[in-house]
Amino acid sequence: MNISQVTYPVALVGAGPGHPGLLTLRAVELLERADLVLYDRLVPVRLLDHVPESARRICVDSLHGTHPERWPEIYQLMIDAARQGQRVVRLKGGDPFVFGRGGEEAEALQRAGIPYEIVPGVTAALGAGAFAGIPLTHRQHVSAVAFVTGHEKPDKKDSFLDWAGLAHFPGTLVVYMGMARLAFIVERLIAHGKPAQTPAAVVHWATTGRQRTVTAPLAELPAAVQQAGLKAPALVIIGSVVNLRTELAWFESRPLLGKRILVTRPRHQAREMIARLEELGAVVALLPAVAIREPADWAPVDQALAHLSTYQWLVFTSANGVEALMGRLRQTGRDLRALAGVRLAVIGPGTADALRRYHLEPDLVPAVYDSEGLAAALKDHVAGQRVLLARADRGREVLREQLSSVAQVEQIAVYSQVDAIQPGSEALELVRRGDIDYITLTSSNIARSLVRALDEEALQRIRSGAVQLVSISPVTSAAIREKGLPVAAEARESTTEGVVQALLALSGGVHLLRCTQETTAPRSEKYVQES
Ligand code: SAH
């Protein structure tokens, strides 16, 4: 036994109702240092992004046996791992102590003498109330709320629930796990005196892009739910507060609500895009189509770094290029001073931001964010000078070709880009099954890599328009069309926000102007020209 190394080896942690942002800070701290994560089926997979690569992740649904038989195995896994000195997070949907069997799991740990911690989570009722625009209490309506489980045997003898008491409860009723027995629950409540006209709602997949809400007078709720095709997971909310939703349903009017979007960027570059799409209501899946690796040979890079002062310009065509070159600078014992006197050019705002993270301001950003745009902007400045292009090992030759006529150009591969899609990956399955509406493609290499990974069934879905491709630039669009596939929309500006705007236009959503420096500053001021 090795418990002494880890004071509190097990944590029962609430994962919240589904929205990845509705996690507590304590939950994130624990996930970030977990060795083993045991998670429930309803826990959003995205939360596992907080878990170290090396940690074991087990979905408890994948354990042997049926629902009740799994519990002893879950207890044993937690206890064994804790005894081996591992840090265990038992990640449970919503809150661990609200219809989550967290009590039983804590008791099992207690019996085994394993120290533990319990981290509350946003329970589904609170998530559904907030995201459906239904205040669970309200001074003009009710001053109490009851959380009830609907998962019970229907025959009255075995029922724990006091239906008469619930029917007369002076407040809002929120029923968990009630979908399979909805008609029975409604019938019981009305039979015990709950007015048939009481406003009621069912909220499906609350707080996620899949959220849907149906409202009806209590007596009509089962039929309305059936007609809308809503199934579990869902909550039933009963009470006059449901009427407030007509004014307060803020979330379900998000322009990309329910749109299923596949992001194909490398994970480390996808975060901003995913956050933005989710903010607009989308259901986002990540399938990194390419991965970044070290170049096959550092020698040409090291050679160039040793003579940086002999170049007048250093040109970056991607944020990855900036990261790779800066990393190598450090590895070879140099620092930012090696760049003193060298002018810096970047292809667009994303690459400019990558430089700024190193407190370096680009001297030139073109008006059009592609190789042609960059070549055109640079041409006037580099005549007769030495230009160093830091880029990937695969890519277009436009920049070198166009600048070579006026300048002395040297090109180094500071990183390598490889195809990264594993056959049979979950996100690939989503495309094949038709569970994706849009795929965003943010470079021609990403587009080609994705197409290589898709099977005939998935390709057919794209050809038929069931799955639509959204491209970041004309070059990316050309790479898609080269493969015989249609481009449904192309970003007007080759940036993440440009892709988001193209998606909004395509899905019929409104264009949302974000008030950032970029949209408020006049163009001529933004694109700093070298004097
Ligand atoms: N411990 C969890 C509840 C587990 S019981 C919590 O605190 O939320 C599982 C039930 O929770 C589901 O049957 C459903 O009724 C409800 N539920 C969980 N997540 C939900 C969601 N995102 N939207 C609606 N209902 C949800």
Describe this structure in words.
- The protein is of the alpha/beta class and 531 residues long.
- The protein folds into four domains: 8-121, Cobalt-precorrin-4 Transmethylase, domain 1; 125-252, 2-Layer Sandwich (Methyltransferase, Cobalt-precorrin-4 Transmethylase, Domain 2); 260-289 and 421-519, Rossmann fold; 293-419, Rossmann fold.
- It has 21 helices and 20 strands.
- A five-stranded parallel beta sheet has the order 3-2-4-1-5, sandwiched between helices. The protein has a five-stranded mixed beta sheet with strand order 6-7-10-8-9, sandwiched between helices. It has a five-stranded parallel beta sheet with strand order 12-11-18-19-20, sandwiched between helices.
- Helix 11 (319-331) packs parallel to helix 12 (349-356), helix 13 runs parallel beside helix 14 and helix 16 (444-453) packs parallel to helix 18 (474-482).
- The longest helix has 17 residues, at 67-83.
- The radius of gyration is 28 Å and the shape is elongated.
- It binds S-adenosyl-L-homocysteine (SAH).
